[in-house]
C-alpha cells in the first residue's frame, strides 16, 4: 500500500527530485508522484500476470519488529539504499548517505518499529518551536524595512506562552520522589534535551536572544516590561535545555564569552547568570 514519509520535526516529505535525487521536499512541492513509497518484503520483481503468492499462502505480511522489508519509490521503482563509502570522503562515524538505486545492496533491509510516544511528542514540539521562533526572527528582521517595531505585530503573547510551556517541559524532577522514578525522569529529560540540540533549537534560541538584544534599546518599543520578560524567558529556556546535560553544556561551552558579554544588559543579567552557572558546573571544557 503506497504511503508518504513525513519528517516530523520539519514537516518535509522524503521524495525523489530529478536534480537532487533523494531529498526532503517542502510540503508545497510534495506531490504524489515525487513522494510516494511502498514497503516490499523482497526485491524480487513483481509480475502482475503471475500468481506471486507463495504456496497459496497469500501475500507476505510485514509486521512491526518481526519482518525485514525494503523501501521502494513507487513511480520510479528505485530502492532506498546507501551510497558506497569512499575512502577519501567520509561523512564521519557510521553515517551513510541515503540514495535511491535500481539495485542497491544486500543489507538494505529495514525492521519497522512503532514510534515511541515520548520521542514522537518531542519531535512535534521541536517542529512547532522552530516554526514559531523562525517566524519571530523574521518579524524582527523586518524592522529595518518597516521602521517601527510597533508596526510589525510581533507575536509576543504567543512566544511568551510557548516559552513558559517549554520551560515547564524541561523542568527537572522534583525532590521527594523515589530514586528509581527520579532516574527515569532524568533519562527522559536528557533525551528531550538531546533531540532539541540535534535539531538546532539551542542555536535558534541563541539567535532569538541576539535579535532581542539588538533591538532592546530601540525607542519604538511600546512595552519595555514585556520585552524584558521575553528576553529573560529565552535565557530560562536556554538554561533548561543544557542543565544537567554534559553534552549540551559542552556544545555551548565555547559561548562563555558571548554570555559574559550579555551581562552588560541589566534586564537579562539574572537569566545570563543562570545559563553561565549551568555551563560552568556541567562542562569541564568551560
UniProtKB/TrEMBL annotation:
<dbReference type="InterPro" id="IPR035910">
    <property type="entry name" value="RyR/IP3R_RIH_dom_sf"/>
</dbReference>
<feature type="domain" description="MIR">
    <location>
        <begin position="1"/>
        <end position="84"/>
    </location>
</feature>
<dbReference type="GO" id="GO:0005219">
    <property type="term" value="F:ryanodine-sensitive calcium-release channel activity"/>
</dbReference>
<dbReference type="GO" id="GO:0005790">
    <property type="term" value="C:smooth endoplasmic reticulum"/>
</dbReference>
<dbReference type="InterPro" id="IPR015925">
    <property type="entry name" value="Ryanodine_IP3_receptor"/>
</dbReference>
<dbReference type="InterPro" id="IPR000699">
    <property type="entry name" value="RIH_dom"/>
</dbReference>
<dbReference type="Pfam" id="PF01365">
    <property type="entry name" value="RYDR_ITPR"/>
</dbReference>
<dbReference type="GO" id="GO:0014808">
    <property type="term" value="P:release of sequestered calcium ion into cytosol by sarcoplasmic reticulum"/>
</dbReference>
<keyword id="KW-0677">Repeat</keyword>
<dbReference type="InterPro" id="IPR016093">
    <property type="entry name" value="MIR_motif"/>
</dbReference>
<dbReference type="GO" id="GO:0042383">
    <property type="term" value="C:sarcolemma"/>
</dbReference>
<dbReference type="Pfam" id="PF02815">
    <property type="entry name" value="MIR"/>
</dbReference>
<dbReference type="InterPro" id="IPR036300">
    <property type="entry name" value="MIR_dom_sf"/>
</dbReference>
<dbReference type="GO" id="GO:0006941">
    <property type="term" value="P:striated muscle contraction"/>
</dbReference>
<dbReference type="GO" id="GO:0033017">
    <property type="term" value="C:sarcoplasmic reticulum membrane"/>
</dbReference>
<dbReference type="GO" id="GO:0034704">
    <property type="term" value="C:calcium channel complex"/>
</dbReference>
<protein>
    <submittedName>
        <fullName>RYR2</fullName>
    </submittedName>
</protein>
<dbReference type="GO" id="GO:0030018">
    <property type="term" value="C:Z disc"/>
</dbReference>
Amino acid at each position: 500500500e503506497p504511503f508518504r514519509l513525513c519528517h516530523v520535526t520539519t514537516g518535509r516529505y522524503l521524495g525523489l527530485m530529478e536534480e537532487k535525487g533523494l531529498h526532503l521536499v517542502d510540503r508545497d512541492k510534495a506531490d504524489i508522484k515525487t513522494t510516494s513509497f511502498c514497503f516490499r518484503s523482497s526485491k524480487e520483481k513483481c509480475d502482475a500476470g503471475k500468481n506471486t503468492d507463495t504456496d497459496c499462502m497469500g501475500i507476505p505480511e510485514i509486521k512491526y519488529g518481526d519482518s525485514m522489508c525494503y523501501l521502494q519509490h513507487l513511480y520510479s521503482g528505485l530502492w532506498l539504499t546507501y551510497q558506497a563509502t569512499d575512502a577519501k570522503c567520509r561523512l564521519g562515524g557510521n553515517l551513510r548517505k541515503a540514495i535511491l538505486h535500481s539495485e542497491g545492496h544486500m543489507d538494505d533491509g529495514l525492521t519497522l518499529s512503532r514510534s515511541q510516544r515520548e520521542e514522537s511528542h518531542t519531535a512535534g514540539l521541536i517542529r512547532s518551536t522552530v516554526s514559531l521562533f523562525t517566524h519571530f526572527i523574521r518579524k524582527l528582521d523586518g524592522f529595518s524595512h518597516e521602521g517601527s517595531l510597533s508596526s510589525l505585530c510581533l507575536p509576543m503573547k504567543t512566544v511568551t506562552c510557548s516559552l513558559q510551556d517549554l520551560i515547564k517541559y524541561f523542568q527537572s524532577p522534583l525532590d521527594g520522589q523515589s530514586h528509581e522514578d527520579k532516574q527515569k525522569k532524568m533519562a527522559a529529560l536528557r533525551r528531550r534535551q538531546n533531540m532539541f540540540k540535534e535539531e538546532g533549537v539551542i542555536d535558534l534560541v541563541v539567535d532569538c536572544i541576539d535579535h532581542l538584544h539588538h533591538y532592546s534599546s530601540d525607542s519604538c518599543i511600546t512595552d519595555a516590561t514585556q520585552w524584558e520578560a521575553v528576553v529573560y524567558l529565552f535565557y530560562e529556556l536556554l538554561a533548561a535545555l543544557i542543565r544537567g546535560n554534559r553534552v549540551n553544556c559542552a556544545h555551548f561551552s565555547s559561548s562563555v564569552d558571548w554570555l559574559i558579554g550579555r551581562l552588560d544588559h541589566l534586564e537579562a543579567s539574572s537569566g545570563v547568570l543562570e545559563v553561565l552557572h549551568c555551563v560552568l558546573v556541567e562542562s569541564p571544557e568551560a
